[in-house]
Amino acid sequence: MLTKRIIPCLDVDKGRVVKGKKFQGIKDVADPVELGKFYSDQCADELVFYDITASHEDRDIFIHIVEDVARNINIPFTIGGGIRSVEDFRKVLLAGADKVSVNSAAVVNPQLIKQAALRFGSQCVVLSIDAKRNQKGSWDVYVKGGRENTGIDAIEWAKEGQRLGAGEICINSIDTDGVKQGFDLELNETLSSLLTIPIIASGGAGNMQHFSDVLNCGADAALAASVFHYKEIAIADLKEFLHKENLPVRRCL
Amino acid sequence: MIAIIDYGVGNLMNVYNALKKLDMDAVITGDKKVIDNASAIVLPGVGAFKDAMDHLVEHDLVETIKDNASKGKYLLGICLGMQMLFDKSYEDGQWEGLGLLEGEIVRFGDGLKVPHMGWNELHINKPHPLIKDIRDGEYVYFVHSYHLDPKYFDDVLLYTDYGVKVPAVVCKDNVMGMQFHPEKSSDTGIKLLQNFKELIK
């Protein structure tokens, strides 16, 4: 049976993972490869490396990180952050990434999804959407790191993304992100029932039950950062928990 | 020496790195002479079927691959590379493949999320040295929107379930294929590549 995926997200700035507490049994926690390996050994299903480097020059460091990860880790990984053109896709894919995530740039230029899908295949195009509830009972698409409301309906945008050739949607709820009270179940359930491509739920994980809840309501994968980085949840334990909840998962055996 | 065929599509480094890690002597090449002299061939592939076949034709490698396969040289197709070993694909039209194995590449049925993306369980259909030490229920990483509908299910060594029995590893004599990405499938993937190494020795 196809399993539900658990995906830790690692923010990378100037070649180093930005995160908090110390891990046991891992020498350099800020090294993307070391931390990626650590999660891979815990049976993480995929990894996301998000480039939060601000300056253009430092982006070359990031490409080397991608190459390094590809050489050393043999599970799939996605690259996001600062992807604006088909050329940006090409660079990270050639460096060894399996998928590329686009967000704001696709809102500005939706054809980017189509062009990338035609050139490299839908399987590597992840449309990442930052969504926030509005007063009409639906969700708006936000860009620029959640600072700017585009007024676009998030559900419609996800459908459009699928039509243009995205192979996956990563839906990040601004309302639940960082609050640790659970994922936005309604948003994930709605999207999952309307789309035929896989959905990755993001934003709101605080405990293991939250993962179970969102995966039970239709999400195909769940992404989180701080609960993993701050060692509140070990991925191997989470997999056992989800297995006991009768969710299909790849367990660490 | 193993020739990983370079025909201008996608990143071949991940496959190369995986083979190198297993101490396999591999080279990424589009050179016919190098391919002819290789002890085995790996045909990778990502993207769309027609586009990939077009690239093989443009690089004038179709006959080279067929000739080598017909001489009995081991040939391993990975992901789209596996699909290309078969007669025909219905991906956005109808396209001819290499025709080294019999079967067609068809779209997943309705009601399933497509692409079939993620870790899915392997089930054993037929024992073979290529799948030595693989237990029923081990997981590998799939990502594909079309799957093989084989003419002979006897060519299938391992399959997975996704609406239908989806062939995961196929083999007929010296021609073999893996629908998933062994280089991205953690320990199980490495084990399969290790078996491939043993086989071509």
Automatic annotation (TrEMBL), chain A:
Cellular component terms (Gene Ontology): cytoplasm
SUPFAM superfamilies on file: Ribulose-phoshate binding barrel (SSF51366)
The reaction(s) this protein catalyses: 5-[(5-phospho-1-deoxy-D-ribulos-1-ylimino)methylamino]-1-(5-phospho-beta-D-ribosyl)imidazole-4-carboxamide + L-glutamine = D-erythro-1-(imidazol-4-yl)glycerol 3-phosphate + 5-amino-1-(5-phospho-beta-D-ribosyl)imidazole-4-carboxamide + L-glutamate + H(+)
Pathway given in the UniProt record: Amino-acid biosynthesis; L-histidine biosynthesis; L-histidine from 5-phospho-alpha-D-ribose 1-diphosphate: step 5/9
Coiled-coil residues: none
An MF annotation (GO) of this entry: imidazoleglycerol-phosphate synthase activity
EC number(s) on file: 4.3.2.10
NCBIfam families associated with the record: hisF
HAMAP family: HisF
Name of the protein described by the UniProt record: Imidazole glycerol phosphate synthase subunit HisF
UniProtKB/TrEMBL annotation, chain B:
A molecular function (GO) term: imidazoleglycerol-phosphate synthase activity
Catalyzed reaction equations: L-glutamine + H2O = L-glutamate + NH4(+); 5-[(5-phospho-1-deoxy-D-ribulos-1-ylimino)methylamino]-1-(5-phospho-beta-D-ribosyl)imidazole-4-carboxamide + L-glutamine = D-erythro-1-(imidazol-4-yl)glycerol 3-phosphate + 5-amino-1-(5-phospho-beta-D-ribosyl)imidazole-4-carboxamide + L-glutamate + H(+)
Keywords for this protein: Amino-acid biosynthesis, Cytoplasm, Glutamine amidotransferase, Histidine biosynthesis, Hydrolase, Lyase, Transferase
This enzyme's EC code(s): 4.3.2.10, 3.5.1.2
Active site positions: 79 (nucleophile), 181, 183
Pathway(s) annotated for this protein in UniProt: Amino-acid biosynthesis; L-histidine biosynthesis; L-histidine from 5-phospho-alpha-D-ribose 1-diphosphate: step 5/9
GO CC, one annotated term: cytoplasm
Protein name: Imidazole glycerol phosphate synthase subunit HisH
Organism, as annotated: Alkalibacter saccharofermentans DSM 14828
Record gene name: hisH
